[in-house]
Amino acid sequence: MTHSSGSLVGVLRWEDPPPPTFRGTGKAARPWPLVAKDLRDHPGRWGVVLEDGGTNSGTAVARISNGLTQWFQPAGAFFALQRQRNHVIEVYAVYIGEHQEYAEEAGVSVHRVA
């Protein structure tokens, strides 16, 4: 058995973790209130709100689109999606509010229940 970095020893592979490279959805990691404000200030315009979020990307999309975080309420006022480009997952979001024209500008099909 060897003890060098990256070697399999028994049931573990011993190696130091790589440096952090992703900006997750934690309160300290992203200034979500400022992200929401910037999107509100530019209705109908898409912005990248998270890069290389990995598994947190889907959570961010759901929280933004469904208004599950106070800054992105009411539900349906924002729309988010994720795309992968060059092995990096990016989350895009847009503020559409109550204005159908903003949704149309952003290319989002919105069906609201009255």
Brief write-up:
The chain is α+β, with helices and mostly antiparallel strands.
Distance between the termini: 67 Å
How many runs of DSSP E, i.e. beta strands? 5
Q: Helical amount among residues, as a percent range? A: 10-25%
Q: Helices and strands: which structural class?
A: alpha+beta
Q: What is the count of helical runs?
A: 3
Largest sheet: 3 strands, antiparallel
Point out poorly predicted stretches. Answer: 24-28
Shape type: elongated
What features would you describe in this structure?
This protein is of the alpha+beta class and about 110 residues long. It has one domain (about 25-105). It has three helices and five strands. The protein has a three-stranded antiparallel β-sheet with strand order 3-5-4, sandwiched between helices. A two-stranded antiparallel sheet has the order 1-2. The chain is elongated and about 60 Å long. Mean pLDDT is about 75; it is low at about 25-30.
Q: Topology, pairings included?
A:
Layout: E1 7-9, E2 12-14, H1 32-41, E3 47-51, H2 56-65, E4 78-85, E5 88-95, H3 100-106
